[in-house]
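hey so u asked for the seq, here:
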Amino acid sequence: MLKHILLSTSAAVALSLSAATFAADIYMNANANDLAIQGYDPVAYFTQSAPTKGTSDYTATYKNAIYHFSSEQNRDLFRAEPSKYAPQYGGFCAFGVTKGRKFDTDPMAWRVVDGKLYLNLNKDVQKIWVEDIPGYITNANDTWPTIKTFSDKTLETF
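ran it, structure tokens below
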């Protein structure tokens, strides 16, 4: 039902928005400096099973966002396969996407599932998300293509 509402609403909004609205890259959750995951190393979630702060000494860009890494090796792994390590849904909250929204995330509220990194708004939201991870992932995978081109401000009005 949510997908149906989003599809029809998205079409109406898309027709009413100017082309300039789509010029900005709103696929990625990055801060004002285009820094993804608040500077945490996306590869470390996989290799160290822990959030690890990266450094500006080791950086890479992917989809107009800048990622920091804790080591040259992690940076090189990311450069070789960025889609393997980048968080799902552009780094927006995995649970929020199921609700048709694009919320910021807490790098400490994370989970790797089937080789993919998912982030949540915070640990309280993550507690809800872990109650049905497969169901929420299926829902978010269905919803993301519909909302990824819109800012959360626009989605808030749907």
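The beta strands are 55-62, 65-69, 106-113, 116-120. The CA atoms of residues 62 and 83 lie 9 Å apart.
lmk if thats what u needed
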